[in-house]
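Hey,
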Amino acid sequence: MKTRGGLFVLVVSVVLGILIANSIHAQTYVWKKYDDFNSGVINTNKWDIDDSSATITIDNGRVKFVHNAGFANDSAFLTIKKGVTNIWGIKATIQFESCTAPAPDYTDVRARVGANIGEEAETLTNRVWASLGLEPYYTNKTYPRFYGFVNVWDTTRNPDELIADLFYAYFPREVGEVPADVIGIPFTITEEWTAKSVKFTVASKGKTTYNYDKKYKVIPMTDATKAYVGIGTASNSGFGTCTVYFDDVYVLRKQ
């Protein structure tokens, strides 16, 4: 009986050990609503505001960006308030209301989610940035595109200097057909990250994942103080005035 009892205790101990180990190492991620903008004002307890190139207001339960002409290589953002932690992704619904610019240049104004998703383990001052966005027009072509990219910036320079492009994903190649005219159509876009990969998703269209090289070590950023996680607009050319709505922002949290 002692032998059987000892064996029973051993089996139970092993099973409990496995369950505890799995519980400790299991990583469950859950999307949590961050803001639906139904309060009627931009909640400054949730957001930091960069309106250098756009007028940002609340309009009928959505945040409205009017990205103005004349701001080449500039962006406007609502970023999640510094001090918010445990962020592993961001999701938002975007919709262009209008976008104008003189032909043949059109405009490259884009609506996007973006974040500093990590630091290089070997050079902590090198920051990894990722963004997923939509452009209703691209250069002198009148077709829209989604795009996602991951690149690296040297933060010791002023301003920060781009030093490497790790990944570019030009949709619709990855997500299927995009309508010829995206004005007035809402799209839900998602960006999420770990120490090993970045995933971009366009709801009902598809997704694409970039996996870091095994030798390339990245320390994930999950603190909004450093991660600069947010929603916004940007333009390289500075042409055109575009009006974009954002709604239903979620953040991905580890439980």
